[in-house]
TrEMBL record, chain A:
InterPro entries: PhnJ. This is Alpha-D-ribose 1-methylphosphonate 5-phosphate C-P lyase. Catalyzes the breakage of the C-P bond in alpha-D-ribose 1-methylphosphonate 5-phosphate (PRPn) forming alpha-D-ribose. Belongs to the PhnJ family. Keywords: 4Fe-4S, Iron, Iron-sulfur, Lyase, Metal-binding, S-adenosyl-L-methionine. It is an enzyme of class 4 (lyase). GO terms for biological process: organic phosphonate catabolic process. It catalyses: alpha-D-ribose 1-methylphosphonate 5-phosphate + AH2 + S-adenosyl-L-methionine = alpha-D-ribose 1,2-cyclic phosphate 5-phosphate + methane + 5'-deoxyadenosine + L-methionine + A + H(+). It comes from Acidisoma cellulosilyticum. Its EC number is 4.7.1.1. The keyword Ribonucleoprotein does not apply. It comes from the Bacteria.
TrEMBL record, chain B:
GO terms for biological process: organic phosphonate metabolic process. Keywords: Lyase. GO terms for molecular function: lyase activity. It holds the Pfam family PhnI. InterPro entries: PhnI. It comes from Acidisoma cellulosilyticum. This is Carbon-phosphorus lyase complex subunit PhnI.
């Protein structure tokens, strides 16, 4: 695109972001502050993920962008278009064809490989934020690996409700050292992070933090021996492809309680149905 | 599923943009507004957009106001997103507001003082009566504004208008500001960290949301922060911006900008090491923005509570709270992102709440008690 550098950001800015990424990879789960820039898309709409993607994208990369697991949600379309426009890279909706996948709120159902990078958009990188709003305080807690506050929160949930009530953005321990926000993915996706072959990068633009989970790193949802982490998904099969192991969206079909459950991962669902529907509008 | 119609996202976005363009233009029977009209006649809107967009350019500010249909936060965002792509070829020398070409300058703490009270173009003493004559099509009949009335030879404004707080300082009644030649931090390049020093705080406030600073400043007057402020001085006018290119070795003037500066005088009871004296709250912003500069000065002073050994319990005194929430570009982005689809998260909330209700129902049923 005329007047802008490849992938929008200028090279010194990309270098600054790459340095932050390298540091993040070296200290898995640790939040690295970085000089996030204003982007032409609003804060809170994926600017952190966009900056990370812009910094790692090469001309021969193939980019996939999903929001809620789907390639055709408006914000995914908007971000994919942004990179088509400012980087001219090839885009795809097929998980297995992508070298870089930027995501909001989901991890693809198709297992990722070690030649792929998953970039998460992160709204609130601080896993302790809801328990302690001061970043000066939480920074110290991370330094001391003092996560008692979160254990107490989980304990109180179990005591009151019989379950942990965190259903998304479930806190995880990375490499047995740092408590990390996996971004608001459903708790269902949390276990996919553990020892994932792909590099996982997390960008929080407004909060100006980058963090990472290197390939094959241990990621463990926080739990107790007598109350182990339990997966929750809608107890149904996908109406379209019949999958019983995928994360499902509940679609309200009428105003009399009618419901349909379909895969949230549109590429996975289309692939299982064996049709080419997943090629869609990512032209 | 209207806004995630399968495969329809791209067409929907295009159609939305077309519709937006038509709405922005309004009825074609009405002549299109020109950016020079906005810059000239909606100058205070442009001022606010330049201040919160952190970019001094009246033409671009006017363009942003036009493009955003007068939504000033959206306009400031447009300007910020543009600003961040600009190369930096130099840093200016500190601007000298004492040498300001004064358009307006008042002090509330002295009846008269060197440099005088200059009321300038203010709404302060207007009666807020809608002027229906302005709604008439014809020219409003106001004589074309000269930038400044021609100065009579014996009334040439002095090159330097002394600052009121300097006079108090000379008398030893105003707390000294620590002097430093250190390069100030830059919140546009480095993320904030806490405790944040005053250079960082003032930068954040200078681009902070006018409404937020107004409300927080107001809260300190109403008892949340216990301030006793006086407007020591409020001045608005033009200052020269100078840079000193290393190859030249001397400063050159690259233009003028309009600034509003406010210095608040606040009580301070003194401490073991400091005698009782006044302290300063400082506000500065691009353009003519008195409300913004005053709010900023109140909040700046409130955030000095800890440094001055005062209790810091009110919202305006909590540095982290103020700085993390003063930026309206960040705030509007995060608040408005709630419009994005969240159905994956909501689905997991649904399943969790159903599960909890099942659990509690089972345990109540087992106990044989009615629900």
């Amino acid at each position: 695109m005329n007047g802008y550098n490849f992938a929008y950001l200028d090279e010194p800015t990309k270098r600054m972001i790459r340095r932050a990424i390298l540091k993040a990879v070296a200290i898995p789960g640790h939040q690295v502050p970085f000089g996030a820039r204003e982007m032409p898309l609003p804060y809170g709409w994926g600017t952190g993920g966009i900056q990370v993607t812009a910094a790692i994208l090469g001309a021969d990369d193939v980019l996939k962008v999903i929001d809620q697991g789907a390639d055709d949600t408006t914000n995914a379309v908007s971000i994919r278009r942004f990179f088509s426009r400012v980087a001219g890279v090839e885009t795809t909706t097929r998980t297995r064809d992508a070298s870089v996948i930027q995501t909001r709120h989901r991890i693809p159902e198709t297992p990722l490989r070690d030649d792929q990078i998953l970039v998460y958009q992160v709204p609130l990188p601080e896993p302790l934020a809801k328990l302690e709003p001061s970043r000066a305080e939480t920074k110290q807690m991370h330094a001391l690996a003092d996560y008692g506050l979160m254990h107490v929160k989980l304990y109180e949930d179990i005591a009151r409700f019989g379950h942990v009530t965190i259903s998304y953005d479930y806190p995880v321990m990375v490499n047995d050292r740092y408590l990390m926000s996996p971004s608001p993915i459903p708790a269902f996706d949390t276990l996919k992070m553990n020892r994932m072959p792909a590099l996982q990068l997390f960008g929080a633009g407004r909060e100006k933090r980058i963090y990472a989970v290197p390939p094959y790193t241990t990621v463990r949802p926080l739990d107790f021996d007598d109350h182990p982490f339990a997966l929750i998904r809608a107890p149904h099969a996908c109406t379209l492809c019949g999958a019983t192991n995928s994360y499902l969206d509940e679609v309200v079909t009428d105003d009399r309680g009618g419901r349909m459950f379909i895969c949230s991962d549109t590429d996975y669902c289309a692939d299982r149905r064996g049709d080419a529907a997943s090629e869609g509008d990512a032209a | 599923m209207a806004y995630v119609a399968v495969k329809g996202g791209e067409r929907a976005i295009d159609a939305a943009h077309d519709w937006l363009a038509r709405v922005r233009r309004g009825a074609p029977t009405v002549p299109e507004i020109k950016t020079d009209q906005i810059a000239e006649q909606l100058g205070r809107a442009v001022d606010r957009v330049m201040a919160e967009g952190s970019c001094y350019d009246r033409d671009l500010g006017a363009l942003a106001v036009k493009q955003a249909q007068g939504d000033l936060i959206e306009a400031a965002f447009l300007l910020r997103a543009y600003r961040t792509t600009l190369p930096r070829f130099a840093s200016s020398l500190p601007v000298e507001t004492s040498a300001m070409l004064i358009h307006r300058r008042i002090s509330a703490i002295y009846k008269d003082l060197p440099g005088g009270q200059v009321l300038g173009p203010t709404y302060d003493y207007t009666h807020r009566l809608l002027d229906f004559a302005l709604a008439a099509e014809a020219d409003s009949g106001v004589a074309p504004a000269a930038p400044l009335p021609p100065a009579e030879p014996d009334q040439t404004p002095p090159a330097v208008t002394p600052r009121v707080l300097d006079m108090l300082h000379a008398e030893g009644l105003m707390g000294a500001e620590p002097q430093s030649d250190a390069t100030p931090g830059d919140i546009t390049r480095e993320p904030m960290s806490f405790p944040a020093e005053r250079d960082i705080r003032l930068q954040a406030l200078a681009r902070g949301d006018e409404g937020f600073l107004l409300a927080l400043g107001y809260s300190t007057q109403r008892g949340y922060g216990n301030s006793h402020p006086f407007v020591g001085e409020l001045r608005m006018g033009d200052v020269s911006v100078e840079i000193e290119p290393p190859e030249l070795g001397f400063a050159i003037d690259i233009g003028r900008i309009t600034l509003t500066e406010c210095e608040m005088v606040n009580q301070f009871g003194g401490s073991k090491t400091e005698p009782p004296q006044f302290t300063r709250g400082y506000g500065l912003c691009f353009g003519h923005g008195e409300r913004k500069a005053m709010g900023m000065a109140l909040v700046d002073r409130a955030m000095r509570a800890e440094e001055l050994g005062e209790d810091a319990t009110a919202p305006a005194q909590d540095i982290e709270f103020v700085l993390y929430h003063s930026d309206n570009i960040e705030a509007t982005g995060f608040v408005e992102h709630l419009k994005l689809p969240h159905y994956v998260d909501f689905q997991s909330e649904l399943e969790t709440i159903r599960e909890i209700r099942r659990t509690s129902q089972n345990s109540t049923d087992a106990a044989g008690e009615p629900l």
